[in-house]
Amino acid sequence: MDYKTISKLMFSGLVTGALIACSAELPEKQTVSGSGDQDYLEISFGEGPNQGVYRYFPGESPTAGVSLSYSKPNDVSFFAAADIKSSQGELQISSVRRFTQGPLELGDNSATTWLAHKPDTKSNKPMDCGRVEMRDLNNTQPYQVVYGTYLDCGATQITRLDDWQTDADGQYRRVEGRYEDRVRLQIAMDDAPFKTIDTTMVVAFSVLQRKK
Predict the structure, then answer these.
(1) Any idea of the CA torsion for 85, 89, 91, 94, to the nearest 10 degrees?
(2) Domain range summary for the chain, segments of one domain joined by +
(3) Predicted confidence (pLDDT) per residue in 24-74, tens digit
(4) By C-alpha distance, which of 81, 86, 79, 56 is closest to 66?
């Protein structure tokens, strides 16, 4: 059974809206308003039915764009995106989230949990450092929903960290990076029980981080 990925990603709650993915030729990057660079998200799956590389760009929705926020009280950086689309396809990713500890710096940034209370490290359960969720909103696929859990929660590597600049909305800077993780996909099929697949997931991104 072949799956292609598609995506929409959320920030502070699920953002509804369909995103379209493509695993063939990558479309030309789009320019983000107010920036000379482009926001994009690239996801690749190493094995399993989603195997391939997929690149997404902001759509026309007011909520479109990839984002990176920082919560000082919680000391957590939160990577997410909304209304990211490519040129073709009908599969949809409802959300992709990733959390890192503390202010970002060049190089490796440790993963952290989004939970208010960190899990007991003696339980041998993986840290909940983010999630992946895919839904068949248009009933075009042989599954209803796919839940993905990161298994290793390794570091997020930041390769670009610009100086802060200021516009009418506050301070911003461009951040680029990537992370790689083993992810466990639990698939609720239309006509069968849950199916579980372990695969490698690599996410690369170029985003604007903002602080007010």
Answers:
(1) 10
(2) 40-119+153-182+199-211
(3) 233 333 333 344 577 788 888 887 666 778 777 665 555 555 667 777 666
(4) 81
Q: What whole-number distance in Å separates Cα of residue 52 and Cα of residue 208?
A: 26
pTM: 0.71
Query: How far apart are alpha carbons 23 and 1 in whole angstroms?
Result: 16
Counting every residue, how long is the chain?
Answer: 212
- Given a contact cutoff of 8 angstroms between Cβ atoms, the answer to whether 144 and 129 are in contact is no
Question: Rounded CA gap, 87 and 82, in Å?
Answer: 16
Query: Tens digits of per-residue pLDDT, 85-104?
Result: 544 455 566 777 888 888 88
Long-range contacts (CB closer than 8 Å, 24 or more residues apart) made by 107-115: 107/157, 107/158, 108/155, 108/156, 108/157, 109/77, 109/155, 109/156, 109/157, 109/158, 109/177, 110/155, 111/150, 111/153, 111/154, 111/155, 111/156, 111/179, 112/76, 114/76, 114/78
